[in-house]
Amino acid sequence: MPTTNTEAMNEHLKEISTQVSPGAHAVLVCDGAGWHQKGRRLHTPHNVILLRLPPYSPELNPMENIWG
Known about the structure:
- There is one protein chain.
- The protein contains two helices and two strands.
- The protein is of the alpha+beta class.
- A two-stranded parallel ribbon has the order 1-2.
- The longest helix is centred in the first third of the chain and has 13 residues, at 6-18.
- The radius of gyration is 13 Å and the shape is globular.
């Protein structure tokens, strides 16, 4: 994807959804990025669950170690 936005996230979620076994769910850990927020524009498939990190939790987000 050339950009990171809600539309790209929707496509990513759709692709993850296609890889989940029937009757199972995928759990995706998300940080507070704007394109990870629920709303009218973000469409979460029925077999994908978004697990949001608390607002400030660098110890739970491995990416924080890369930027820090």
